[in-house]
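Posting this for the archive.
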Amino acid sequence: MKIGIDTQSIINKKTGLGIYTENLLKALFQMDLENEYVALHSKKPNDLTTPGRWIWDQVTLPRLAKKADLDLLHKPCFSAPIFYDGKIVLTVHDIIPVLFPENLSFSARMYWARWLPYTFKKADKIIAISESTKKDLIKYLHLPSEKITVIYEGSSFENLPNMICEADKKRVKNKYNLLEKYLLCVSTLEPKKNLPFLVRCFYLAKKKFNFSEKLVIVGKIGWGVGPFFEQIKKYNLEKEIILTGYVTDEDLPVLFKMASAFVSPSLYEGFGLPVLDALKSGCPVITSNSSSLPEIVGDAGILANPKREQEWVEELGALLSKKSLRENYKNLGIKQGEKFSWKKCAEQTLKVYSQAINEKKL
Protein backbone atom coordinates (compact mmCIF):
# COMPACT_ATOMS: atom_id res chain seq x y z
CA MET A 1 0.00 0.00 0.00
CA LYS A 2 1.02 3.57 -0.62
CA ILE A 3 -0.20 5.54 2.37
CA GLY A 4 -0.24 9.31 2.64
CA ILE A 5 -0.27 10.93 6.07
CA ASP A 6 -1.09 14.59 6.69
CA THR A 7 1.85 15.87 8.75
CA GLN A 8 0.92 19.56 8.78
CA SER A 9 0.44 19.52 12.57
CA ILE A 10 4.14 18.67 13.09
CA ILE A 11 5.54 21.77 11.39
CA ASN A 12 5.26 24.37 14.16
CA LYS A 13 5.44 24.02 17.96
CA LYS A 14 3.63 20.75 18.54
CA THR A 15 0.54 20.36 20.69
CA GLY A 16 -1.22 17.03 21.29
CA LEU A 17 -2.21 16.65 17.64
CA GLY A 18 1.34 17.07 16.40
CA ILE A 19 2.69 14.74 19.08
CA TYR A 20 0.21 12.06 18.01
CA THR A 21 1.07 12.42 14.32
CA GLU A 22 4.84 12.45 14.83
CA ASN A 23 4.98 9.46 17.16
CA LEU A 24 2.56 7.37 15.11
CA LEU A 25 4.61 8.02 11.98
CA LYS A 26 7.86 7.09 13.74
CA ALA A 27 6.33 3.83 15.00
CA LEU A 28 4.95 2.96 11.56
CA PHE A 29 8.35 3.57 9.94
CA GLN A 30 10.06 1.32 12.50
CA MET A 31 7.70 -1.64 12.30
CA ASP A 32 6.24 -1.61 8.78
CA LEU A 33 8.71 -2.46 6.01
CA GLU A 34 6.09 -3.46 3.43
CA ASN A 35 4.08 -0.31 2.86
CA GLU A 36 5.26 3.02 1.47
CA TYR A 37 4.52 6.18 3.47
CA VAL A 38 4.30 9.69 2.06
CA ALA A 39 4.34 12.69 4.42
CA LEU A 40 2.07 15.43 3.08
CA HIS A 41 2.56 18.99 4.32
CA SER A 42 3.13 22.57 3.26
CA LYS A 43 5.93 24.79 4.54
CA LYS A 44 3.64 27.31 6.22
CA PRO A 45 2.89 26.81 9.94
CA ASN A 46 0.11 29.41 9.76
CA ASP A 47 -1.90 26.98 7.65
CA LEU A 48 -3.18 25.71 11.03
CA THR A 49 -5.27 28.87 11.50
CA THR A 50 -8.96 28.36 10.69
CA PRO A 51 -9.07 29.81 7.11
CA GLY A 52 -5.70 28.30 6.23
CA ARG A 53 -6.69 25.00 7.80
CA TRP A 54 -9.81 24.82 5.62
CA ILE A 55 -7.81 25.54 2.47
CA TRP A 56 -5.21 22.94 3.44
CA ASP A 57 -7.73 20.23 4.30
CA GLN A 58 -10.13 20.75 1.42
CA VAL A 59 -7.98 22.09 -1.45
CA THR A 60 -4.20 21.71 -1.08
CA LEU A 61 -4.02 18.35 0.69
CA PRO A 62 -6.41 16.44 -1.62
CA ARG A 63 -4.53 17.86 -4.62
CA LEU A 64 -1.21 16.59 -3.22
CA ALA A 65 -2.80 13.24 -2.32
CA LYS A 66 -4.19 12.79 -5.82
CA LYS A 67 -0.83 13.68 -7.35
CA ALA A 68 0.89 11.09 -5.10
CA ASP A 69 -1.48 8.38 -6.38
CA LEU A 70 -2.19 6.99 -2.91
CA ASP A 71 -3.99 3.83 -1.93
CA LEU A 72 -5.02 5.48 1.32
CA LEU A 73 -4.96 8.92 2.93
CA HIS A 74 -4.74 9.17 6.73
CA LYS A 75 -5.88 12.43 8.28
CA PRO A 76 -4.53 12.33 11.86
CA CYS A 77 -6.61 15.37 12.83
CA PHE A 78 -9.14 17.95 11.67
CA SER A 79 -11.49 17.52 8.71
CA ALA A 80 -11.70 14.89 5.99
CA PRO A 81 -11.45 16.30 2.43
CA ILE A 82 -14.98 15.89 1.08
CA PHE A 83 -14.09 16.07 -2.63
CA TYR A 84 -11.29 13.51 -2.44
CA ASP A 85 -12.31 10.22 -4.08
CA GLY A 86 -9.68 7.96 -2.53
CA LYS A 87 -9.87 5.92 0.66
CA ILE A 88 -9.69 8.00 3.86
CA VAL A 89 -8.90 7.07 7.46
CA LEU A 90 -9.57 9.91 9.90
CA THR A 91 -8.45 10.18 13.52
CA VAL A 92 -10.91 12.08 15.72
CA HIS A 93 -9.44 13.27 19.01
CA ASP A 94 -12.55 14.87 20.51
CA ILE A 95 -15.68 16.84 19.63
CA ILE A 96 -15.10 19.71 22.06
CA PRO A 97 -16.54 22.37 19.70
CA VAL A 98 -19.78 20.39 19.48
CA LEU A 99 -20.02 19.95 23.25
CA PHE A 100 -18.86 23.46 24.21
CA PRO A 101 -19.90 25.76 21.32
CA GLU A 102 -20.43 28.69 23.72
CA ASN A 103 -16.65 29.06 23.94
CA LEU A 104 -16.35 29.88 20.23
CA SER A 105 -17.05 32.92 18.08
CA PHE A 106 -19.78 32.57 15.43
CA SER A 107 -17.32 32.02 12.56
CA ALA A 108 -15.25 29.52 14.55
CA ARG A 109 -18.43 27.72 15.61
CA MET A 110 -19.49 27.33 11.98
CA TYR A 111 -16.16 25.68 11.17
CA TRP A 112 -15.32 23.66 14.28
CA ALA A 113 -18.80 22.68 15.46
CA ARG A 114 -20.63 22.38 12.12
CA TRP A 115 -18.30 21.89 9.15
CA LEU A 116 -15.71 19.68 10.85
CA PRO A 117 -18.20 17.08 12.17
CA TYR A 118 -19.99 17.08 8.80
CA THR A 119 -16.80 15.92 7.06
CA PHE A 120 -16.41 12.94 9.41
CA LYS A 121 -19.04 11.11 7.36
CA LYS A 122 -16.69 11.19 4.36
CA ALA A 123 -14.10 8.96 6.07
CA ASP A 124 -14.11 5.24 5.29
CA LYS A 125 -12.82 4.45 8.77
CA ILE A 126 -12.53 6.56 11.92
CA ILE A 127 -9.99 6.10 14.67
CA ALA A 128 -11.16 7.44 18.04
CA ILE A 129 -8.43 7.90 20.64
CA SER A 130 -10.63 6.77 23.54
CA GLU A 131 -13.89 5.00 24.29
CA SER A 132 -15.16 8.34 25.55
CA THR A 133 -14.59 9.95 22.14
CA LYS A 134 -16.22 7.00 20.36
CA LYS A 135 -19.31 7.28 22.56
CA ASP A 136 -19.50 11.00 21.84
CA LEU A 137 -19.27 10.40 18.08
CA ILE A 138 -22.14 7.92 18.26
CA LYS A 139 -24.29 9.90 20.68
CA TYR A 140 -23.92 13.42 19.30
CA LEU A 141 -23.01 12.91 15.62
CA HIS A 142 -24.89 9.62 15.07
CA LEU A 143 -21.94 7.93 13.37
CA PRO A 144 -22.20 4.13 13.05
CA SER A 145 -20.32 2.19 15.71
CA GLU A 146 -18.87 -0.27 13.20
CA LYS A 147 -17.09 2.57 11.42
CA ILE A 148 -15.16 3.58 14.55
CA THR A 149 -12.14 1.83 16.10
CA VAL A 150 -10.72 2.91 19.45
CA ILE A 151 -6.91 3.09 19.42
CA TYR A 152 -5.14 4.59 22.41
CA GLU A 153 -2.08 6.80 22.06
CA GLY A 154 1.32 6.13 23.56
CA SER A 155 3.37 8.41 25.76
CA SER A 156 5.23 11.27 24.11
CA PHE A 157 8.49 10.18 25.80
CA GLU A 158 8.15 6.46 26.45
CA ASN A 159 11.71 5.68 27.53
CA LEU A 160 13.22 9.07 28.28
CA PRO A 161 12.31 9.36 32.00
CA ASN A 162 14.52 6.35 32.79
CA MET A 163 17.49 8.02 31.10
CA ILE A 164 17.33 11.34 33.00
CA CYS A 165 20.44 12.13 35.03
CA GLU A 166 21.29 14.66 37.74
CA ALA A 167 22.86 16.98 35.15
CA ASP A 168 19.53 17.13 33.31
CA LYS A 169 17.71 17.99 36.52
CA LYS A 170 20.19 20.72 37.41
CA ARG A 171 19.95 22.24 33.93
CA VAL A 172 16.15 22.35 33.95
CA LYS A 173 15.99 23.67 37.52
CA ASN A 174 18.23 26.57 36.58
CA LYS A 175 16.46 27.22 33.29
CA TYR A 176 12.99 27.56 34.85
CA ASN A 177 14.08 28.80 38.29
CA LEU A 178 12.72 25.74 40.10
CA LEU A 179 14.42 26.19 43.45
CA GLU A 180 11.70 24.42 45.44
CA LYS A 181 9.40 21.43 45.09
CA TYR A 182 6.44 21.87 42.78
CA LEU A 183 3.17 20.55 41.42
CA LEU A 184 3.10 20.23 37.63
CA CYS A 185 0.30 20.97 35.19
CA VAL A 186 0.88 20.61 31.43
CA SER A 187 -1.88 22.39 29.58
CA THR A 188 -2.66 24.97 26.93
CA LEU A 189 -4.20 27.92 28.74
CA GLU A 190 -7.85 27.78 27.64
CA PRO A 191 -11.27 27.49 29.36
CA LYS A 192 -11.82 23.72 29.13
CA LYS A 193 -8.61 23.12 31.09
CA ASN A 194 -10.34 24.61 34.16
CA LEU A 195 -7.24 26.46 35.30
CA PRO A 196 -8.97 29.20 37.39
CA PHE A 197 -10.44 26.31 39.42
CA LEU A 198 -6.95 24.83 39.82
CA VAL A 199 -5.53 28.15 41.01
CA ARG A 200 -8.21 28.50 43.69
CA CYS A 201 -7.82 24.88 44.84
CA PHE A 202 -4.05 25.33 45.01
CA TYR A 203 -4.51 28.48 47.11
CA LEU A 204 -6.98 26.84 49.51
CA ALA A 205 -4.91 23.65 49.86
CA LYS A 206 -1.70 25.59 50.47
CA LYS A 207 -3.45 27.70 53.09
CA LYS A 208 -4.92 24.67 54.89
CA PHE A 209 -2.01 22.22 54.69
CA ASN A 210 0.92 24.67 54.48
CA PHE A 211 2.92 22.64 51.94
CA SER A 212 5.98 24.18 50.26
CA GLU A 213 5.24 23.15 46.66
CA LYS A 214 4.76 25.81 44.03
CA LEU A 215 2.57 25.29 40.97
CA VAL A 216 4.33 25.02 37.60
CA ILE A 217 2.11 25.32 34.53
CA VAL A 218 3.63 24.30 31.20
CA GLY A 219 1.93 25.29 27.97
CA LYS A 220 1.14 27.97 25.45
CA ILE A 221 -1.26 30.79 26.23
CA GLY A 222 -4.44 30.09 24.31
CA TRP A 223 -7.63 32.11 24.58
CA GLY A 224 -10.08 33.05 27.34
CA VAL A 225 -7.24 33.40 29.86
CA GLY A 226 -8.57 36.49 31.65
CA PRO A 227 -10.18 34.62 34.59
CA PHE A 228 -7.01 32.57 35.07
CA PHE A 229 -4.75 35.60 35.51
CA GLU A 230 -7.41 37.32 37.62
CA GLN A 231 -7.36 34.40 40.07
CA ILE A 232 -3.56 34.51 40.36
CA LYS A 233 -3.72 38.22 41.15
CA LYS A 234 -6.70 37.85 43.52
CA TYR A 235 -4.87 35.35 45.73
CA ASN A 236 -1.43 37.02 45.44
CA LEU A 237 0.09 33.91 43.87
CA GLU A 238 2.43 35.63 41.43
CA LYS A 239 5.45 34.17 43.26
CA GLU A 240 3.85 30.77 43.85
CA ILE A 241 2.80 29.97 40.27
CA ILE A 242 5.43 29.59 37.55
CA LEU A 243 4.36 29.82 33.90
CA THR A 244 7.03 28.32 31.67
CA GLY A 245 5.30 28.79 28.32
CA TYR A 246 6.07 26.21 25.64
CA VAL A 247 8.67 23.65 26.74
CA THR A 248 10.93 21.60 24.45
CA ASP A 249 10.71 17.83 24.10
CA GLU A 250 14.10 17.66 25.83
CA ASP A 251 12.99 19.50 28.98
CA LEU A 252 9.46 18.18 29.42
CA PRO A 253 10.23 14.67 30.74
CA VAL A 254 12.67 16.18 33.24
CA LEU A 255 9.91 18.44 34.58
CA PHE A 256 7.65 15.41 35.03
CA LYS A 257 10.39 13.42 36.74
CA MET A 258 11.11 16.12 39.33
CA ALA A 259 7.49 17.05 40.16
CA SER A 260 5.88 16.08 43.47
CA ALA A 261 2.63 15.38 41.63
CA PHE A 262 0.82 16.07 38.36
CA VAL A 263 -2.50 17.95 38.54
CA SER A 264 -5.12 18.43 35.83
CA PRO A 265 -8.75 19.35 36.59
CA SER A 266 -9.67 19.48 32.88
CA LEU A 267 -13.38 19.50 32.11
CA TYR A 268 -12.96 17.37 28.99
CA GLU A 269 -10.17 15.42 27.29
CA GLY A 270 -10.34 13.23 24.21
CA PHE A 271 -7.40 11.26 25.61
CA GLY A 272 -5.23 13.20 28.07
CA LEU A 273 -1.68 12.67 26.83
CA PRO A 274 0.03 14.66 29.65
CA VAL A 275 -1.74 12.42 32.17
CA LEU A 276 -0.24 9.35 30.50
CA ASP A 277 3.16 11.06 30.42
CA ALA A 278 2.88 11.58 34.18
CA LEU A 279 2.01 7.92 34.77
CA LYS A 280 4.94 6.79 32.61
CA SER A 281 7.25 9.08 34.57
CA GLY A 282 6.18 7.76 37.94
CA CYS A 283 4.69 11.15 38.80
CA PRO A 284 1.62 10.77 41.07
CA VAL A 285 -1.54 11.95 39.31
CA ILE A 286 -4.60 13.89 40.45
CA THR A 287 -6.98 14.48 37.56
CA SER A 288 -10.66 14.71 36.66
CA ASN A 289 -13.10 11.84 36.93
CA SER A 290 -14.73 12.82 33.62
CA SER A 291 -14.50 12.11 29.87
CA SER A 292 -11.58 9.84 28.87
CA LEU A 293 -9.40 10.37 31.92
CA PRO A 294 -10.66 7.41 34.01
CA GLU A 295 -9.83 5.15 31.03
CA ILE A 296 -6.23 6.32 31.05
CA VAL A 297 -5.64 6.44 34.81
CA GLY A 298 -7.60 3.40 35.97
CA ASP A 299 -6.77 2.82 39.65
CA ALA A 300 -3.27 4.23 39.29
CA GLY A 301 -4.09 7.82 40.24
CA ILE A 302 -6.55 10.02 42.10
CA LEU A 303 -9.74 10.91 40.21
CA ALA A 304 -11.68 13.91 41.52
CA ASN A 305 -14.70 15.91 40.43
CA PRO A 306 -13.43 18.96 38.46
CA LYS A 307 -16.19 21.13 39.89
CA ARG A 308 -15.79 20.34 43.60
CA GLU A 309 -13.15 22.53 45.24
CA GLN A 310 -13.12 20.85 48.63
CA GLU A 311 -12.56 17.44 47.09
CA TRP A 312 -9.46 18.72 45.27
CA VAL A 313 -8.19 20.58 48.33
CA GLU A 314 -8.36 17.44 50.48
CA GLU A 315 -6.78 15.20 47.82
CA LEU A 316 -3.92 17.64 47.28
CA GLY A 317 -3.30 17.94 51.01
CA ALA A 318 -3.37 14.18 51.57
CA LEU A 319 -1.05 13.39 48.66
CA LEU A 320 1.55 16.01 49.51
CA SER A 321 1.60 15.16 53.21
CA LYS A 322 2.03 11.39 52.78
CA LYS A 323 5.22 10.16 51.13
CA SER A 324 3.98 6.56 51.24
CA LEU A 325 0.88 7.55 49.26
CA ARG A 326 2.98 9.27 46.61
CA GLU A 327 5.27 6.24 46.38
CA ASN A 328 2.28 3.94 45.96
CA TYR A 329 0.84 6.00 43.11
CA LYS A 330 4.28 6.27 41.54
CA ASN A 331 4.55 2.48 41.28
CA LEU A 332 0.94 2.03 40.17
CA GLY A 333 1.35 4.75 37.55
CA ILE A 334 4.42 3.18 35.96
CA LYS A 335 2.62 -0.16 35.75
CA GLN A 336 -0.51 1.45 34.26
CA GLY A 337 1.58 3.36 31.73
CA GLU A 338 2.98 0.12 30.35
CA LYS A 339 -0.44 -0.65 28.89
CA PHE A 340 0.01 2.16 26.36
CA SER A 341 2.64 2.42 23.62
CA TRP A 342 3.11 3.88 20.17
CA LYS A 343 4.01 0.40 18.93
CA LYS A 344 0.57 -0.88 19.92
CA CYS A 345 -1.00 2.22 18.42
CA ALA A 346 0.81 1.67 15.10
CA GLU A 347 -0.05 -2.05 14.97
CA GLN A 348 -3.74 -1.35 15.49
CA THR A 349 -3.67 1.56 13.04
CA LEU A 350 -2.22 -0.72 10.35
CA LYS A 351 -5.19 -3.06 10.80
CA VAL A 352 -7.57 -0.15 10.24
CA TYR A 353 -5.67 0.79 7.07
CA SER A 354 -6.11 -2.74 5.73
CA GLN A 355 -9.81 -2.76 6.58
CA ALA A 356 -10.34 0.57 4.82
CA ILE A 357 -8.46 -0.61 1.72
CA ASN A 358 -10.29 -3.93 1.49
CA GLU A 359 -13.79 -2.68 2.10
CA LYS A 360 -15.88 -1.37 -0.76
CA LYS A 361 -16.17 2.42 -0.94
CA LEU A 362 -19.71 3.45 0.00
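The mean pLDDT is 92. The chain is about 45% helix and 15% strand.
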